[in-house]
Amino acid sequence: MESTQVAATAQIINKDQLLTHWLGHRKVTRRALEAFPEKELFEFSIGGMRTYAQLTKEMLAMDGSTARGLATDDWGTFDEEKTELTTKADLLASYDESTEKIQNYWKDISMEKFQEKVVAFGQYDGTGYSILFYIIDNEIHHRGQGYVYLRALGITPPNFWEQY
User: Fold this and answer.
1) Where does a divalent metal cation bind (predicted)?
2) Is the pTM of this model over 0.85?
3) Residue ranges for the binding site for a divalent metal cation?
4) What residues are designated binding site?
């Protein structure tokens, strides 16, 4: 009986380790953003894909807002256009602000919220943890597109394994 109870309460990682994992990915994504030349950040694409600036704006629309949504149930509006972000410096500053938002809201996310059913941005229906994993996976996916762009531009992207 005791071993069943222990197995039911064991976990692979804790909440703070999950945050560290997410922030590790964000550090690599930020370095990829830094690697882009200004002009190409807003103009270069391959095969009809969006520019890395557009991809970054999508990430910015979701990341800090997801932390806020999980902490407060206020998901806000989904604005991936972010027309006010017109320079690389703007994108980097917004990225840093978003990371601060994540860190500030994280302490207010209950462990129970990760298991609850939530509807993020009025369209993503799942559990708290599945929404968070989607946000992290989406960032990794878009960073991968950015890596292809950087390689096509003759720029070596940052090492993805250097997260911490």
Assistant:
1) 142
2) yes
3) 142
4) 142
